[in-house]
Structure formats: C-alpha cells, structure tokens
Amino acid sequence: MYLEIYLYPVPEENKEQFLKINREAERIYKEYGALESETFTATSIQPGYGCIGMISAVELLESEILMLEINRYDNKEHHSQVLEKVDNDEQIEKLYNQVIEVIDLSRTVRGEFEFL
Asked: What Pfam families does the record point to (predicted)?
C-alpha cells in the first residue's frame, strides 16, 4: 500500500467550493487507477495523549479549517503510473487553477508513505 497525503488549510467560507473541486479531482484520480481518494474535515487537531496536535503541522488563520486528503495506490510504481496520466489530463489543469483561487496551496502540507 502506498499513500499520498495532503493537509489543506481551507477558509471556512470556501469549504463547499473546495470540496466540489476536490471531489472532481478524486474522480479523475480513480479513473486513472488510484485505489481510493478521500477527503476529510478535521474534528480535533489539538494536542492530546502526550502528542502535539496537527495544529502544529499547518498554520491555520482565524477563519480556516484543516482538511485531509488521502490517495491510495498499490505501491510507488502504481502511484507514478497514475500521476503520469493525471498530470496530462486537461481537466486537472482546470481544477488546479480553480483550487488556487479557493485556497493558498503554498501552505498545503504533502507527503508520501509506504506500508511496512
């Protein structure tokens, strides 16, 4: 299993627009072979159980919420194959241009993880 994870700071007033854009992108990722692409809204990002909170990972402005996207693939090779197709899709470019009007993408945290 191979995961691609994003932490998005989203202005509350743009939440529905962000979700609409992201759901369309999720559809495209799955069309090109991603096993799953899901978006979640944070319910608690405060410290707890001796851990720092996710609030430390992303600087949220006063009226922003934290959203998480997880994309699943078989392995790193499968991830690379899917992204090659996605990156060449004209719709993704349009969705990218829409999302940068809704959120500050430069403050988004991204990572890739492999199951051990």
From this structure: DUF1428 (PF07237)
Distance between CA atoms of 64 and 103, rounded to whole angstroms? Answer: 10
pLDDT of residue 106: 94
Q: What is the pTM of this model?
A: 0.91
Is 9 in contact with 61 (CB distance < 8 Å)?
Answer: yes
* pLDDT beneath 50, residues of the chain: none
Identify the structural domains of the chain with CATH numbers, from first to last: 2-114 (3.30.70.100)
18 φψ region: left (φ > 0), alpha (ψ -120 to 50), beta (else): alpha
CB atoms within 10 A of CB 107: 14
